[in-house]
Amino acid sequence: MRKAIILLLVVSVLSMTVSGCFGSFRLTRTVYEMNQSLNDKFLQTIVMWAMMIVPVYGFSALIDIWILNLIEFWTGTNPLAMNADDLEERFYEHEGKQYLVTTTQNRYDVVEVGNDENSFALVFDIDSWYLHSNGEVIKVTEESGTAMRLYGLEGELLSSF
Predict the structure, then answer these.
(1) Alpha carbon of 30 to those of 25, 92, 103: distances in Å?
(2) What span, in angstroms and rounded, lies between the C-alpha atoms of 132 and 55?
(3) For residue range 86-101, what is the model confidence (pLDDT) as tens digits?
(4) How many CA atoms lie within 13 A of 37 on its CB side?
(5) What confidence score (pLDDT) does residue 72 get?
(6) How far apart (Å, rounded) are the C-alpha atoms in residues 16 and 25?
(7) HEC string of the chain?
(8) Which of 44, 58, 78, 88 is most buried as measured by Cβ atoms within 10 A of its Cβ?
(9) Are residues 61 and 22 in contact, defined by beta-carbon separation less than 8 angstroms?
(10) pLDDT digits (tens, 9 = 90+) for 105-159
(11) How far is CA 35 from the centre of its chain?
C-alpha cells in the first residue's frame, strides 16, 4: 500500500511538471465553494473533515490534475468553466442587507435587493478586473506575465506580487 501511495504521488508531481500545465482546478474549487456556502463554520469544519477522510478533495484534485487541467492546457478551455451564455444567480446577506450576485462569464453584478442604486459590477477584460460603479470605471487588478498588481479605488498601487 505504501509503494502505491508513493507511486501515485510521483506520478502526480511528474504529470504537473512534465506537461507544464497548471490549470484552473475548477472541479476542486467547486467542491471547496460548495463547502464554503454552508454558512456555519462548525458545519463547514465537519464537512471539510468528512471530505478529507472520504477523500473527496483528493479525488477532485486528481481528476483536475490528470484530466481537466490537461484538457484545459491542450484545448484552452476547461469543461467545467463557465461558458459565454451561462448565468448564475445567488443571494447573499451582509450586515442585515440582502444582495443578488449575478455571475456570467468574466462579469459579476452585485445589487442590493430593494435598492438598485446600491450596485456595482466587476468586469474582466483581457488582463485586468475593473470595478464599474456610479458611472465610473476603476481598474482594481492587473496581470502582467507572472506579476499581479492590486489597485485601490483612487487608482493607487496597493500591492504588487
Answers:
(1) 9, 18, 14
(2) 41
(3) 788 888 888 888 988 8
(4) 9
(5) 72
(6) 12
(7) CHHHHHHHHHHHHHHHHHHCCCCCCHHHHHHHHHHHCCCCHHHHHHHHHHHHHCCHHHHHHHHHHHHHHHHHHHHCCCCCCCCCCCEEEEEEEECCEEEEEEEECCEEEEEECCEEEEEEEEEEECCEEEEEECCEEEEEEEEECCEEEEECCCCCEEEEC
(8) 78
(9) no
(10) 888 888 999 988 888 888 888 778 888 888 889 888 887 766 678 888 888 887 7
(11) 14
Taking the C-alpha atoms of residue 102 and residue 88, their distance in angstroms, rounded to an integer, is 6
C-alpha cell at 145: 506575465
CB 6 within 8 A of CB 12: no
Q: Which three cell numbers stand for residue 56?
A: 473527496
How large is the C-alpha radius of gyration of the chain? 19
What residue has cell string 466587476?
122
**What's the sign of the alpha-carbon dihedral 17, 23, 24, 30?**
negative
What is the Cα–Cα distance from 101 to 120, expressed in whole angstroms? 10
The three three-digit cell numbers of residue 124, written as one number: 474582466
**Cβ atoms within 10 Å, residue 111:** 17
**If you count them, how many residues does the chain have?**
161
